[in-house]
Amino acid sequence: MNEIDIQKDYINKTRDLIKKGQKYCIYTMGCSLNENDSEKICGMIEQCGYTKTSDLNEANLVIFNTCCVRENAEEKLFGKLGELKELKRKNNIIIAIGGCMMQEKHIQDKLNKSYPYVDIIFGTHTLHKLPEDLYNAIQNKKIKDVIDIDGEIYEGLPIKRESLTKAYVTIMYGCNNFCSYCIVPYVRGRERSRNKDDILNEVKKLADEGYKEITLLGQNVNSYKCMEDYNFANLLNDIDKIDGIERIRFMSPHPKDFTDDVIDAIKNSNKISKTIHLPLQSGSSNILKKMNRKYTKEQYLELVKKIKNKIGNVLFTTDIIVGFPEETEKDFEDTLDVVKKVNFEQVFMFIYSRRKGTIADKMENQVEEKVKHERFNRLKELVEKQIADNNKKYVNTIQYVLVEGTSKNNPKMLTGRTESGKVIVFEGKTDNIGKMINVKVISEHMWYLKGEIIK
Questions:
Q1: Rg (the chain; Cα; Å)
Q2: CB 47 within 8 A of CB 7
Q3: Which of 24, 108, 433, 443 lies at 20 to 30 Å from 180 by C-alpha?
Q4: pTM of the model
Q5: DSSP symbol at 101
């Protein structure tokens, strides 16, 4: 039997082993890749016979899918595990922890020492073996299933998607860039691309099931390569031809690998979003060199200019880290300068936090926390002013919107996202959910737009 068939066998054996009515609760930390991994975890666990709950008190199995990019993820995990100690004693729940954080030796050691009641530890390369690990844990075996070598790509895992209208499709795993602040290459391994036919078949299946929007995922999607002569641009062009899919997004690309053929694929498509997520991280060439990003401020701005010249109506979103080691006031002002020049549609801002095992953690001249927060607040003020100004441009425009569901804040209203990713709320019938419709923007607010359906 191949590995997936072995795990299907464990799914059947686990279903026979557990009592009816068993429930599980899952906590997902981190990026969209982690969210997609959690959908696979849920798919496997539900085939094992569990049903999902958000109430810890009724859960028989609690799963954490962890992130190790930022320090607060560790604090969240250990805080939650502390809460679970009494519940574990009272209800004899099974606790499983997976994801990036479990690839770190010092985290494994801390769990073994301070949280010995954790039943399963599994890593990023052994996610597919969760049915086997669960089967053994039910029989009172403590499981540690983590490997340090790059994992294989396993196709055919069950998946329980979070949304019925839009879907994540992971096209590659791992990263070869080794940015000095980032732990990902150490916990996700080197770049491995999925076979193009497996990706295209997954997208076709999603289209057949009624999905309208897909987001292609990878640590660096534009380094995707299948065989010698098939790259990310080829993949975009082939997905663009699939009937039923009406919007294609991708994240995250790397500026150093953003080639002309990818730009052309976006330009020539009516489906690929013209809002491009282009991570900046810093606007200072000095800091970018220390980050090992392999481009300068000038090269980033030149790339933005090239994309704008080729794709007239393009918009940009980005990631920025504030307070990287040795960042001076001049370096930070360079970041503000790029933000002003590009006029990003959205900026995901992060205060630098040291990650054990990275080069940046060992750098001297770490920036004081007070300075980091002061700079972060200045960046936030600039970004929010730009967002407020940009939002005004949407009023009285017609937006092609994917209706995602009812609004969390007002269940009488529907909600969706514009092509540029803006949240928009509007009145409408629930049978519009899952459809692409035209909505006129009638007012703008900082974090959302309000609209009305065009009859």
A1: 23
A2: no
A3: 108
A4: 0.94
A5: G
